[in-house]
């Protein structure tokens, strides 16, 4: 077989193999088990409860003793809800979205890392915001509850990643 034909066939084979790998990785990333989907839903429910200032809904998805690290501080569950409610009263609105979830389940415990893509709206307008976040969850009586969350706001011009 001549060199140009062998090169073309090798390139075509590599292209097919790489596209299959990308497809499989993409499909695995999108497919969540029932537990993983429930975990993503629990995190999303925390944001919905906060958006609605609904402490009852919030308590339904967090474990006793829940706390959060955000803005360089430790905030207990009711404290964070109080701060958000106060911000809402001042005209601020938050949008939070769980994207790119990476969920790991180990028995009755789990952790999730994700990108929270949202926005903050106030009198001056709306700005897009991203946070890198994670949470630890425990399953109690078949229900996933959040015990701990951590949030790091991504700067408007983040440094290049390695």
Automatic annotation (TrEMBL):
InterPro entries per record: DUF4440 (IPR027843), NTF2-like_dom_sf (IPR032710)
Organism: Acidisarcina polymorpha
Signal sequence segment: 1-24
Organism lineage string: Bacteria, Pseudomonadati, Acidobacteriota, Terriglobia, Terriglobales
Domain DUF4440 as annotated: residue spans: 39-146
Alphabetical UniProt keywords: Signal
Name the record gives this protein: DUF4440 domain-containing protein
Coiled-coil blocks: none
Family annotation (Pfam families): DUF4440
């Amino acid at each position: 077989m001549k060199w140009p034909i062998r090169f073309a066939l090798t390139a075509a084979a590599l292209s097919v193999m790489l596209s299959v790998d990308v497809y499989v990785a993409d499909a695995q990333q999108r497919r969540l088990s029932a537990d993983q989907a429930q975990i993503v839903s629990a995190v999303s429910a925390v944001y919905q409860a906060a958006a609605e200032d609904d402490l009852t809904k919030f308590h339904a998805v967090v474990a006793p003793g829940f706390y959060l690290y955000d803005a360089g501080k430790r905030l207990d569950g009711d404290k964070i809800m109080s701060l958000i409610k106060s911000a809402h009263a001042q005209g601020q609105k938050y949008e939070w979205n769980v994207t790119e979830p990476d969920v790991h389940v180990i028995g009755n415990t789990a952790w999730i890392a994700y990108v929270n893509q949202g926005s903050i709206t106030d009198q001056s307008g709306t700005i897009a915001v991203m946070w890198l976040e994670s949470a630890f969850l425990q399953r109690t009586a078949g229900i996933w509850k959040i015990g701990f969350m951590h949030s790091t706001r991504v700067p408007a011009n983040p440094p290049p990643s390695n």
